[in-house]
Amino acid sequence: MEDRLIITSNPNKSVSESDRSALVIWGKSPLNGHVTISGAKNSALVVMTGALLCSEDCRIRNVPSLVDVKRMCQIISALGVKVEQNGDVVDMNAQEIGTSQAPYDIVSQLRASFFLIGPILARLGEARVPMPGGCAIGARPIELHVMGLQKMGADVQLAHGMVHARVKGSNRRLQGARIYFDYPSVGATETLMMAATLAEGETILENAAQEPEVIDLANFCIAMGAKITGAGTNTITISGVPSLHRVDYSIIPDRIEAGSFLVAGAITHSEISLSPIVPDHLTAVLAKLREVGTQTIWEAPDTLRIIPANTIKPTDIETLPYPGFPTDMQAQFMALLSLSEGNSVITETVFENRLRHVAELQRMGANIRVKGNNAIVTGVPFLTGAKVLATDLRASAALVIAGLAAEGKTIIQGLHHLDRGYEKLEPKLQKLGARIQRVQNEAEAEALNLTV
Ligand code: EPZ
């Protein structure tokens, strides 16, 4: 049995360049043309952790170039695993999983790295991973992950900011189990599905998450020889196998990036087309776009064109686990509904602290009142450009979208959030005709004039 794995810790985040840089947007430019959607961040990250289940070559395609992906590469490489990203291809070989320590400061900045505990425990019979801790949008507890691993026979201790999991028993192999989730957590479903692929016997995950990224991870594991059925439903069954084999897999397009561009088209009353898109992945988003008056037509099985309306109707939104309305699109729709002709109520049920963009949208003239996890958005005739600060990944996208529709100049800072999840956002928007530019610092942003 290989040595146990240790990952340890230092929460201080260095002030990166993107903390000082800013995006300058000159609003009111109609968009037009076509935008290509990148691979899905939330699939790429977990599929990369899934490759640690296999001791042979894994090639993962359509991987976006994002800060989070780079961080995951750094963490995986610090574990002694071969990993290399060339363009949108990541090659990995986890024949060796060393005991090297991953730099805590990177682990603490990437929650998804916690999902590593599943594959490492399944491969090594032991793992120590820093607790991911909370983030801007919520406490983000992990008790469902821990509960599931304990059900599969692991002894899990939480101490000194670390989660230390060890598989008891002579062969130190996880055991299949029946696991019911009190909440259909995406991460817990993914962690335990991965752990179960190499476990002894059958595991049944009940009230499991049904997100497209969960299905993509299952398909990746199945392509390596895993026995998984029911991914995409609320009951997933995994029959453990002794080992997995090499794979060449292409991940799904990013439905949240696609949704963000659709909202950018709707708020600027612009006709744009997007591809590749998987139709089913956007059902709830397209339904809400129809309710605000925007039409969409499929020009090809994976290509969507948005036909904007002259006015934006109000509508109510409640975020829910898939196939409900995605919490990762809540902020973007709040920006859109800020310009609607009436009142909308947005209820955030998935994360307890995901309304921090309200204050920044108010700075741009939006009329929004918050009551608990509800935001009451009263539409205004126009937004005005302002200096605003991104507070998390999707909040930053909402501010870009509001800036595209606002009168005058918007300056957005806190871009380290945006860079975590949107690949080449400025060039993609510039290609659609947006007047948007990234500058090195605030002074440059103040001085920049994009009217010409
Ligand atoms: C994934 O996070 C995504 N991240 C999130 O995207 C997304 O918002 C979320 O799923 C919901 O769709 C990645 O895939 C890397 P959860 P995850 O476990 O897995 C609670 C973005 O913007 N919970 O489904 O962490 C939890 O606190 C990001 O790209 C527990 O209580 O989400 C939250 O309130 C943000 N106990 C809710 O469940 C647990 O053990 C949903 O969390 C686990 C979760």
UniProtKB/TrEMBL annotation:
GO cellular-component term (any): cytoplasm
Modified residues (2-(S-cysteinyl)pyruvic acid O-phosphothioketal): 135
Record field: catalytic activity: phosphoenolpyruvate + UDP-N-acetyl-alpha-D-glucosamine = UDP-N-acetyl-3-O-(1-carboxyvinyl)-alpha-D-glucosamine + phosphate
Binding site for UDP-N-acetyl-alpha-D-glucosamine: 111, 140-144, 328, 350
Coiled coil (UniProt feature): 422-449
Entry's Gene Ontology BP terms: cell division; cell wall organization; peptidoglycan biosynthetic process; regulation of cell shape; UDP-N-acetylgalactosamine biosynthetic process
One Pfam family linked to the record: EPSP_synthase
Pathway annotation from the record: Cell wall biogenesis; peptidoglycan biosynthesis
SUPFAM superfamilies, alphabetized: EPT/RTPC-like
Family: Belongs to the EPSP synthase family. MurA subfamily.
Function, as annotated: Cell wall formation. Adds enolpyruvyl to UDP-N-acetylglucosamine.
Protein name: UDP-N-acetylglucosamine 1-carboxyvinyltransferase
Gene symbol of the encoding locus: murA
